[in-house]
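Q: What would this chain look like folded?
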Amino acid sequence: MRGIFSVVGLLLVVAVVALLARKQLTSVAAPPASAGSSEAAAVAPAGTPRQQVQQFQQAVQESMQAPRPEPDTK
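A: My prediction, written as structure tokens:
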């Protein structure tokens, strides 16, 4: 009896997670067609994938090299 409740509970949890995942994936669907082409162009990444990786690595390096602010010790 205990095993049956465990299996039923597990199936219920899986069903809830599947419904939430489906809802989340449908909310991330493509933007409406009425959106301006300038917005679509701004979202599209520029350059080749290799250039994109290099730009990302540069941004990470720059952020790592930035000095941290000094805490106020008053």
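The mean pLDDT is 81.
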